[in-house]
DNA sequence: TTAACATAGTTGCATATGCAACTAATTTAA
DNA sequence: TTAAATTAGTTGCATATGCAACTATGTTAA
């Protein structure tokens, strides 16, 4: 097996790009007065798709540990964007609902998000985009196949 | 401008993949008795490339804020992998050096890293890889162009 | 039916991260 | 040459993250 030069592999590109998109996200949200981190935004988005989801399910679909998600919920709950409702049918679970204020800020975030994605994909053809997404998904499958399921729910 | 469906863009792929590579990295390092996070590994790698670098330069090349890097150094210093040396020429700067123990663990990490990259890129052709890296770099440039330089040193 | 097991969520602990404000040291410009 | 600006690093504060161990509840199997 040939020796691999770290810099020539896809690994550093992925890491750097994730960082840069995070910075960009944070910049534009801040500039537009959207008081959300990208993690918080993702939670609101998943609730906007389907309101009242159970904490553990949210953890699963956002690829987080249940610990991390629980604390994210606490943060957005404090901000008044979601409410945690303890189920009476199954007393173990919490269902999470978007509040009116949560719906409002999510709605306001959408055009900003569109700008972010436009800026991101600027000058890149649809073919390039779809083949890139395709490769990224393949890599993802390689990893999931091998990653042992832990508390992370993967 | 056409309405963008978040799920169809490259954004979620990037985020998820970064997470999954992180999990995989952590799994394999743990299984192989390498007591390093991916962030710590990157710092050791940069020092292995060029020993004695200044904190701020390390922050720049690893795309971190100087705060974050300073604390990373403190962590790996406590583990005994690097030493912080206060310069006598310019009393503002710290130069960071790999210790023998740091060199040793980095050397032990290399084959593990090779495995990670092999697993990651498994079943993906060289053409796919290089075009993907190319697109990711384009996106990165789009973002850097627009991101205002802050303490992050970008 | 009750004991074993599984599930949902929380807490403690450790790491990583960035911004703003700060100190100390160096460089630049008046 | 001295005052102003810049640079390197640290500290406080807030967020995000995961693992292990824990509690409470619910399900399953003997």
Topology (elements, then pairings):
Two copies of one chain form a homodimer.
Chain A: H1 11-31, H2 38-49, E1 53-54, H3 55-61, H4 66-78, E2 82-86, E3 94-98, H5 100-120, H6 126-146
Antiparallel strand pairs in A: 1-3, 2-3
Helix pairs in contact in A: 1-5, 2-5, 3-4
Chain A binds a DNA duplex (30 and 30 nucleotides) through residues 23, 26, 37, 39-40, 54-56, 64-68, 70-72, 75, 90-94, 150-152.
User: What would the average pLDDT of chain A be, to the nearest integer?
Assistant: 92
- Report the portion of residues of chain A in β strands: 5-15%
- Total strand segments of chain A: 3
Query: How far apart are the termini of chain A?
Result: 30 Å
User: Which two chains touch over the largest interface?
Assistant: A-B, 52 and 52 residues
Give the quaternary arrangement of the chains: homodimer
What would you report as the Rg of chain A, rounded to the nearest angstrom? 18 Å
Which class of secondary structure composition applies to the elements of chain A?
mainly alpha
Spans of at least 5 consecutive residues with low confidence of chain A: 148-154
- Structural shape of chain A: globular
The arrangement of helices and strands of chain A along the chain is HHEHHEEHH
């Amino acid at each position: 097996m040939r020796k691999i030069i770290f810099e020539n592999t896809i690994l550093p590109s992925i890491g750097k790009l994730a960082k840069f998109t995070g910075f960009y996200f944070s910049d534009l949200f801040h500039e537009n007065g959207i008081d959300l981190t990208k993690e918080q935004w993702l939670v609101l988005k998943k609730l906007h798709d389907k309101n009242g989801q159970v904490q553990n399910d949210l953890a699963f679909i956002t690829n987080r540990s249940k610990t991390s998600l629980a604390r994210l919920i606490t943060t957005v709950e404090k901000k008044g964007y979601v409410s945690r409702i303890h189920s009476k049918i199954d007393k173990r679970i919490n269902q999470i609902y978007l509040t009116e204020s949560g719906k409002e800020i999510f709605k306001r975030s959408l055009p900003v998000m569109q700008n972010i994605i436009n800026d991101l994909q600027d000058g890149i053809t649809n073919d390039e985009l779809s083949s890139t997404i395709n490769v990224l998904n393949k890599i993802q499958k390689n990893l999931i196949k091998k990653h042992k399921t832990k508390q992370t729910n993967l």
